[in-house]
TrEMBL record:
<protein>
    <recommendedName>
        <fullName>4-aminobutyrate aminotransferase</fullName>
        <ecNumber>2.6.1.19</ecNumber>
    </recommendedName>
</protein>
<dbReference type="Pfam" id="PF00202">
    <property type="entry name" value="Aminotran_3"/>
</dbReference>
<keyword id="KW-0032">Aminotransferase</keyword>
<dbReference type="GO" id="GO:0005739">
    <property type="term" value="C:mitochondrion"/>
</dbReference>
<dbReference type="InterPro" id="IPR015421">
    <property type="entry name" value="PyrdxlP-dep_Trfase_major"/>
</dbReference>
<dbReference type="InterPro" id="IPR015422">
    <property type="entry name" value="PyrdxlP-dep_Trfase_small"/>
</dbReference>
<dbReference type="GO" id="GO:0009450">
    <property type="term" value="P:gamma-aminobutyric acid catabolic process"/>
</dbReference>
<dbReference type="InterPro" id="IPR004631">
    <property type="entry name" value="4NH2But_aminotransferase_euk"/>
</dbReference>
<keyword id="KW-0808">Transferase</keyword>
<dbReference type="InterPro" id="IPR015424">
    <property type="entry name" value="PyrdxlP-dep_Trfase"/>
</dbReference>
<dbReference type="InterPro" id="IPR005814">
    <property type="entry name" value="Aminotrans_3"/>
</dbReference>
<dbReference type="GO" id="GO:0034386">
    <property type="term" value="F:4-aminobutyrate:2-oxoglutarate transaminase activity"/>
</dbReference>
<dbReference type="GO" id="GO:0030170">
    <property type="term" value="F:pyridoxal phosphate binding"/>
</dbReference>
<comment type="similarity">
    <text>Belongs to the class-III pyridoxal-phosphate-dependent aminotransferase family.</text>
</comment>
<keyword id="KW-0663">Pyridoxal phosphate</keyword>
Length: 511
């Protein structure tokens, strides 16, 4: 099969595809014949404005996985569990918005390593940062940050992580990954609450507390909880897993804390046609949150919420709901933790998704990871620091090398104005999918994410088949929840990439 560069006017493909029957040619060859007729149109397409030399469209040379990929996968499976493998990648050849496999197939990647690649594969600016003496020093002399921070650690933080700190939050605890960020935020919440109940940081622990905690008993082990929402995802470690409610497979067989969950508003779409019902769903959810805060047998010291429930199916709520949540938590002296692990760093058309809410006062903590390529939580209240050293502590406490990388990512985002760019491309893409939804009723159900950058999703009745078929049309795309197709392109995703995606999606549902 000759290499095919997809793109151009693929809307004509579907009608041709239907005329090619399985008895005449295999599915792969059928697609190949169709796409060959459109190579010239594809070659006329613009390449990326941000990545000189990026492919003008997907390139397909083999089935996915092809023979070389299959060989690599077979070897890998002998030493590593490959059952969740999506596709094997060759990152030495992946570039910009395109992920490349060992067989030379180049797919437009709108999944981006589960929303964690911000500014493209092999970004030259990040490559330069990675090759700097500062990065080399951070890698080969990795410090135990709590004990032996480097002389320039404060400068690295102030010119990077803290440069984009959410409003009102001027301190940070750095961590290793999103789950770790949430775990340490929970620990901070528990210590804050007990410190407050004792009468302040100057009040020391009692002998009973010191002895009972060694047996995992109260009063040393507090009888408190963290409240989360149904269909939420906050990680896979023990504390974070107890607040994860998205899929049973995440939690089966693992001991869990007896912590409360409230109902996340189940909005109906289009939003403008269900305003009254949606407002009631949000009011009912807030009433349930308040009831649990007041009555749950293990009192919540914090509520954690995602601006958009990502793994649980891309569930949205209105800014008014989140303002109400801030008011309820404040009223009852409960901390509000906003989990921006997946929504942060520009994907929603704001650097932080909670900036869309217009909160009268900031959350107490905001956790981050993924596109930041590092992790941790921001906070502002000094009392969220525990009263003694070594209480919030581990060997690494983050990674200066990853903090340096995030600084380079921030500079690239600001240099290219990528947050504004993402908002504009998101509006364009949403409008085009809206038109597809009218043209193909039932295929793009519950379209959501209007005004939220490229953080767009819809439900498809044959979602898994949709995702699998996408690769045949040169697109790597992901799902969430039971039936959602979620878009997670990089911040360098442009309108010409959106057109390629739209053409592919139309052919997926019409073939």
């Amino acid at each position: 099969m000759a290499a095919l560069r997809l793109g151009g006017p693929l809307r004509a493909v579907s009608a041709t595809f239907k005329r090619i029957t399985p008895s005449r040619v295999s599915s792969r060859n059928a697609i190949s014949q169709i796409l060959t007729r459109h190579v010239a149109a594809s070659n006329a397409r613009m390449s990326s404005s941000f990545f000189a030399g990026e492919p003008k469209g997907p390139v397909l040379k083999t089935d996915i996985p092809g023979p070389k990929s299959q060989e690599h996968i077979a070897k890998l499976d002998q030493v590593f569990d490959t059952r969740s493998l999506n596709m094997l990648a060759d990152y030495t050849k992946s570039f910009g918005n395109y992920i490349v496999d060992p067989d030379g197939n180049a797919l437009l990647d709108v999944y981006a390593q589960i929303a964690s690649i911000p500014v493209g594969y092999n970004n030259p600016t990040l490559m330069k940062a990675a090759q700097s003496p500062e990065m080399a020093t951070a890698i080969i002399n990795r410090p135990a940050l709590g004990n032996f921070p480097s002389h320039d650690w404060v400068e690295i933080l102030e010119t990077g992580i803290l440069k984009v700190a959410p409003k009102g939050l001027d301190q940070v605890f750095t961590a290793m990954a999103g789950s770790d960020a949430n775990e340490t935020a929970y620990k901070a919440a528990f210590m804050w609450r007990r410190q407050k109940e004792r009468g302040g940081p100057a009040v020391d622990f009692t002998k009973e507390e010191m002895e009972s905690v060694m047996n995992n008993q109260s009063p040393g082990a507090s009888q408190l909880s963290i409240m989360s929402f149904k269909t939420a995802f906050h990680g896979r470690l023990f504390g974070s897993l107890s607040t994860t409610r998205s899929k049973p497979i995440h939690k089966l067989d693992i001991p869990a804390f007896d912590w409360p969950q409230a109902t996340f508003p189940q909005l109906k779409y289009p939003l403008e046609e269900h305003a009254e019902e949606n407002a009631k769903a949000e009011a009912d959810s807030l009433a349930e949150v308040e009831h649990l805060i007041k009555n749950y047998h293990l009192p919540p010291c914090a509520v954690i919420v995602e601006p958009i429930q990502s793994e649980g199916g891309d569930n949205h709520a209105s800014p008014a709901f989140f303002r109400g949540l801030r008011a309820v938590t404040k009223k009852h002296g409960v901390l509000l933790i906003v989990d921006e692990v997946q929504t942060g760093v520009g994907a929603t058309g704001k650097f932080w998704a909670h900036d869309h809410w217009d909160l009268p006062e900031p959350p107490d903590m905001v956790t981050f990871s993924k596109k930041a390529q590092t992790a941790g939580y921001y906070y502002g209240d000094p009392s969220l620091r525990p009263n003694k050293p070594y209480r919030q502590f581990n060997t690494w406490m983050g990674d200066p090398a990853r903090a340096i990388l995030f600084r380079a990512i921030i500079n690239e985002i600001q240099r290219l104005d990528l947050v504004k760019h993402t908002a504009e491309v998101g509006d364009y893409l949403y409008g085009k999918i809206e038109a597809l939804a009218k043209k193909y009723p039932g295929e793009f159900q519950n379209l959501r994410g209007k005004g939220m950058g490229t953080f767009i999703a819809f439900d498809n009745p044959k979602r898994d088949e949709f995702l699998k078929k996408a690769k045949k049309f040169g697109v790597n795309i992901g799902g969430s929840g039971a039936s959602a197709v979620r878009l997670r392109p990089m911040l360098i995703f442009e309108k010409q990439h959106a057109d390629l995606l739209l053409e592919a999606m139309e052919n997926i549902v019409s073939s």
